[in-house]
Amino acid sequence: MKTICIFGDSITWGACDEKGGWVERLKVYLAENYECVDVYNLGIPGDTTKGILERFEAEAQERVDGEEELILMFAIGINDTRLSEISLEKFMGNLNEIIKRAKKLSSKIIFVGLTPVDESVKEVNIDNYVNEKIKSYDTIIKSECREKKILFIDVFGSFSKLDYKKLLDDGLHPNTKGHEIIFKLVRDYLINNKIV
């Protein structure tokens, strides 16, 4: 039995997708194609690395017993980039603490990278989401994962190769097509790396 706990924010939760988001798609796909894999969507809209630190250990432990293999996935960081949220230094500290604590629970840890935004959308601008900053936080996640031998799925790079503004619903959250792309990236990564 494998249990996949996916922690994140509103994008993880499935905002702006008629099919429930990339995590819901992954849950359905794994249920149809693999035996004994449970997927828990533990995304909370607006969450940051600070929020994840406060909750992920207890929430993961509630969902497994000694017989199950626990796989931890984190799709977090875009809300940290907002002007008044989490400084770069604090973000790095939180990220390292998440990794340190996660390693005590599982040997299979995966980070899902951040998504770019459409800065021309008024609400995105008001909320201070800026691609340059998002990319820098995403690069930190990628580099920390490489250094600590943690798996990383590059969503920012994949979206940037496409006309990504057409993959966004409100300038920030992926639309149905965007969630489908993230789902396929994650699905293929899990299969190719023999995690499922």
Description:
The structure is a single chain. The model has no long low-confidence stretch (mean pLDDT 96). The chain has helices at residues 10-13, 22-33, 49-61, 88-105, 122-126, 131-147, 155-160, 176-192; strands at residues 2-8, 37-43, 69-75, 108-112, 151-153. Helix 2 packs across helix 8 (176-192), helix 3 (49-61) runs parallel beside helix 4 and helix 4 (88-105) runs parallel beside helix 6. By secondary structure, it is an alpha/beta fold. Helices cover 47% and strands 15% of the residues. Strands 2-1-3-4-5 form a five-stranded parallel sheet, with helices on both faces. The chain has a single domain, classed as SGNH hydrolase (Rossmann fold, 3-Layer(aba) Sandwich), CATH 3.40.50. It contains eight helices and five strands. The termini are close together.
Q: Concise description?
A:
The chain has 196 residues and is an alpha/beta fold.
